[in-house]
Amino acid sequence: MNDTIVAVSTAQAQGAISIIRISGDDTINIVNPLFKEKDLTKVKSHTINYGHIVYKNEIIDEVLLSIMKSPKTYTKEDVIEINTHGSAAVVNKIIEILLISGCRLAEPGEFTKRAFLNGRIDLTQSEGVMDLIKSESEVERKMAVNELSGRTSTLITMLREKLVNLISNIEVNIDYPEYEDIEIVTIEKIKKEVRDMLKDLRKTLKLSEDGRVIKEGIKTVILGKPNVGKSSILNALLEEEKAIVTNIKGTTRDIVEGSIIIGGIKLNLIDTAGVRESNDVIEKIGIEKSLSLIDEAELILLVLDASEELSKEDKFLLEKTKDKKRIIIMNKKDLKNKNSYYNNILKVSAKNGEGIEEIKDSIKTLFKVEEILNKNVSVFTNVRQIALLKSAIESLEAAEKAAYEKKEIDMIEIDLKLAWERLGDIIGANYNEELLDNLFSRFCLGK
Hints:
12 strands, Gyrase A, domain 2, flat
């Protein structure tokens, strides 16, 4: 990281303004000869300076130049941002001049990688930067801001401190039993502390799994027998005529998909073929697809018909989805009610648009959106973080089991150390170059 890097931080498209970012020890020395109006070695940090980029006596562009001196910068290095006009020709020319003058073109995510390696942010905050850039919904934005602020790292840091204190006490007890002023770590103390840590981590894991689903978009399957109004509910949620709606059973024979953001949550909606016995070859294929999607779904919207009693297809689907996150919707409430099923249902009329908002509110409640966003809880929202969280829990569970079995305390210590390491992996206290290269390669150039 001894070289000085440069990249365009704004989108690669024509616009009014583009921003070129430079970071590194030689940033000021490289840019100073190109900026004629002021001596950048003498201007105050965190100031914006008007002038021109000039190369070989040719004015390249009129610019605003922001100078930020280390360590109070994004990378903790000297940083300059050049606000140019948004012409590709202008931007490319200035980049070319900076490369000739001693800069190197930054790799994707290299500015954030330097921020991490220089200790300004941890690994979860680095991932939060990318999540914020890619956020499509209000919920995604808020979760990314929580990551970026360090809120998600607080619990991990606290638990690692508890673990290292416990491990240190164990080692002192083993190596220096003659020290009378050191607390004796008993099996009971280990059981209590591990139990408390597991409680926090299990709650975090549950919220994190819901958070990951929310972040990626909830795969939502609309399920039911033919002609109960599945396509009408899809259209009502999407607020467009995505699916064909008729009173003829079996109209939907293939999967119809659409995405929508409701209440700040992204739903990936899938309308399926109605489930019933059929001799039609094409319809049977659609029904098989519908049933196969149950296992993949993160949410089932199971639609029943208020104007009919429960059929064997309804009962089959109620049983088949009982262990899934689901919302049972009694459609056609505008018709005469003949259905006696009243177990945690939402009554709606997709035809008249009644009850659609209640479906949206139920989804937010089911996935604990308010708890994830509005309470001071730690939520991890990508596969890497959640896998490490599960691994840490497994190690603590092994330590707890060993404690209850009254195994040797130095054997319990091995599992405690593994948990401490896995928690460290989450925030980047332990890392390797391959991991960093893979993670930051997904970033856009200039961030």
